[in-house]
Design brief:
binds ligand 7PJ, single chain
């Protein structure tokens, strides 16, 4: 069925930020790798995230942490697509697929994904052409370098200007291929080829990206920039994550990508109540 309006287009009209719940389907995120167990466990998590207030579920089958090993297209499809199908059968929720591979994107689109979330901003072969033939939305994320080495020595002439320049180039490529702005979401990519100071500079100047007039996504949940600053393990980063979520939302982020949906909803409700009275 052809959608009349893309998800990205609808987002521009929504004033309150939407929460995107993270669903990892990488093998290390499940201790007992059995297929049915994995789907059941995923559905259980998704149901909870929806109850807690998530509008979007972001399914990821490739770990993009610094130093993570590559996953084959076949393996990524086998991890992600059954979970996408199961979610779409049971829940009325926007589903995003976190992938950089054209083959995974193709399967995702065939199986009713609403959004392709690509940390490589459709730079891999075939991705732009494939998206152009569809009507799904796409999140173009900025990354300097590639996951394996991106944290080695990030360098920018001017952090914000360089990222804006990257967005200009990617948007032009998309438009040229037939992916119009109505389908595009932008994300400056916290933690992807940025030093600690650069990550905080990015958060300080997040509002700058509003100049594109496109929905902005912010992914900060439990990231190293929080852990390093606070000296907290991954499971102790909730307060830090909530603070960054509020700061990004306050500067115009339309989608906040998080692990802790319930707590983030609470934090954003406070922000909304304040914004309404401002
Ligand atoms: C992001 C992402 C992000 C978008 C990951 C992690 C690493 N997609 N996928 N933005 N991060 N759009 O969650 O720590 O920041 S994976």
């Amino acid at each position: 069925m052809l959608k009349t309006r893309s998800y990205a287009e609808q987002l521009l009209e929504i004033s309150t930020p939407q929460v995107m719940g993270i669903l990892n389907v990488t093998p290390d995120s499940f201790s007992d790798g059995g297929k049915f167990t994995q789907i059941d466990s995923a559905l259980f998590q998704v149901e909870q995230m929806i109850i807690d207030g998530a509008n979007i579920i972001d399914i990821g089958g490739e770990s993009t942490r610094p130093g993570a090993v590559d996953v084959s297209e076949k393996d990524e499809i086998a991890r992600v697509i059954p979970v996408l199908k199961a979610i779409k059968e049971r829940f009325d929720v926007i589903v995003s697929i976190d992938t950089s591979k054209a083959g995974v994107m193709a399967e995702a689109i065939t199986n009713d994904a609403d959004l392709i979330n690509d940390v490589r901003a459709l730079q891999n072969d075939g991705c732009i052409a494939l998206l152009a033939q569809s009507d799904v939305s796409v999140c173009l994320m900025h990354m300097q370098g590639l996951p394996r080495t991106m944290q080695t020595s990030p360098h920018y002439n001017n952090l914000i200007d360089d990222i804006k320049h990257f967005f200009d180039e990617r948007i032009a490529q998309c438009n040229h291929a037939g992916i119009q702005n109505q389908r595009i979401i932008l994300d400056p990519g916290f933690g992807f080829g940025k030093t600690q100071a650069q990550n905080y500079q990015l958060l300080a100047h997040f509002a700058n990206f509003q100049s594109f007039n496109l929905p902005l996504l912010a992914g900060l949940s439990r990231k190293s920039m929080i852990g390093n600053l606070l000296n907290r393990n991954v499971e102790e980063r909730l307060a830090g994550s909530l603070t960054t979520a509020v700061l990004a939302a306050q500067q115009g982020a339309k989608i906040i990508r998080v692990h802790d949906v319930k707590e983030t909803m609470d934090a954003l409700k406070i922000l909304n109540a304040v914004t309404e009275q401002a």
